[in-house]
Amino acid sequence: MNTSMTVRTVVTGTGHFVPPRIVTNQDLEKLMDTSDEWIRERSGIRERHHVDAGVGASDLAIEAARRAIADAGVDPATIDFVIAATLSPDHYFPGIGVIIQAKLGLGTTGALDVRNQCSGFIYALSVADQYIRTGTYKRILLVAAEVQSTNLDFTDRGRDMSVLFGDGAGALILEPSADGDGRGVLSTHLFADGNFVSHLWMEKPSSRDCPTFVPEFFTEGRFFPKMEGRNVFVNACQRMPESIRAALEKNGLTIDDVDVLIPHQANDRISLMVAKGLKIPVEKVVRNIDRFGNTTAASIPIALDEAVKGGRIKRGDLVALTAFGSGYTWASALLRW
Ligand SMILES: CC(C)(COP(=O)(O)OP(=O)(O)OC[C@H]1O[C@@H](n2cnc3c(N)ncnc32)[C@H](O)[C@@H]1OP(=O)(O)O)[C@@H](O)C(=O)NCCC(=O)NCCS
Asked: Cα(41)–Cα(166) distance, rounded to whole angstroms?
């Protein structure tokens, strides 16, 4: 096939940043009725990183962004669009895209926030891909960043959630392919089923309440994220493989063609079930949840950066990404690296 006329979106730089403070399972044992054994068996997590007070998602995002910019070796002033994915913005509004844009000194460059929770990174990648392929923008900074730890219930009541999540950020620089060698994003595939909103959500604050903030919501713990863990588990194990199969079919490829699979790091048992469902050797699956926990939208770009820098992803490799999360939303992407 002559690919010389096909403009694709290539990743020209990657970076990630996590706050320095490590919280181990043993640290959590001191706060609630849980155990290192329970957490490792159910999720594969050993430790996660938590911010100190005063640090928000935009602060982690900016560090990851600077690393991706340095990796790409580009002048930040040449970035012509910013896309940020987070469910934990510094403020209820505006989103963190504009904060990142200002901190990088990008003048009046546009900044978009994507809110698709654990699928946020792939949804954001799909948006960036459309802009690049149509020639609208030539150098996009895509950042996914989360601070979960400041709004988790670290008591027995919230232990199913609070042991799973961590803070962190990952970033990419995306540009059009220069030489038509077939590298870049092959396709992205987005899915949702809004019938499951309340299965994984942060119910409050809500614009449906008047007034929005009442003390009972705090005492009842309704500002904390909640989930129906088993339902999330079952759906994640089904939907992520489905979305990868859709991507492979679209590109006339098979699972044997995939060199590296990066699933959203929700739970290591889910990642292993996804590998089993797809019949892909587990050695091809990137799994770093043991050190980071579930960092929501940031988990894929953190894992991607580690895999690239660690030499696990090489030029020409077929990289498959998939995510599942609140909404429910789920998604996949295929990239020729
Ligand atoms: C949360 C999850 C790990 C629970 O695992 P599980 O195998 O379903 O857990 P089980 O049902 O076997 O055990 C639940 C029991 O453990 C208890 N438990 C929950 N959290 C606990 C913790 N941190 N420590 C110890 N016990 C805990 C529950 O209270 C329950 O006790 P009970 O049986 O006495 O009522 C699992 O459902 C999961 O991973 N779900 C998906 C989560 C996820 O990925 N969310 C984000 C998606 S993007």
From this structure: 18
**Is residue 245 packed enough to be buried (19+ CB in 10 Å), middle (13-18) or exposed (0-12)?**
middle
- Beta-carbon-side half-sphere exposure of residue 170 (alpha carbons within 13 Å): 23
- Among residues 16, 49, 50, 118, the one annotated as catalytic is 118
**3 state DSSP class of 112:** strand
Q: Catalytic residue among 116, 235, 264, 288, which?
A: 264
> One digit per residue, pLDDT tens: the chain, 337 residues?
444 568 999 999 999 999 999 999 999 999 999 999 999 999 999 999 999 999 999 999 999 999 999 999 999 999 999 999 999 999 999 999 999 999 999 999 999 999 999 999 999 999 999 999 999 999 999 999 999 999 999 999 999 999 999 999 999 999 999 877 899 999 999 999 999 999 999 999 999 999 999 999 999 999 999 999 999 999 999 999 999 999 999 999 999 999 999 999 999 999 999 999 999 999 999 999 999 999 999 999 999 999 999 999 999 999 999 999 999 999 999 999 9
**C-alpha to C-alpha distances, 123 to 43, 127, 129, nearest whole angstrom:** 25, 7, 10
Torsion angle (degrees, nearest 10) of CA 65, 335, 319, 266: 60
Pocket test for ligand 1, best of 40, 160, 299 (most atoms within 8 A of CB): 160
118 belongs to the catalytic site = yes
Against a cut of 0.90, is the pTM above it?
A: yes
What is the spatial distance between Cα 12 and Cα 184, in angstroms, rounded to a whole number?
10
Residue indicated by tokens 């859709």: 246
User: Token pair of 56, please?
Assistant: 């928000």
Q: Which of 287, 294, 333 is nearest to 310 (CA)?
A: 287
Q: Is 210 a catalytic residue?
A: no
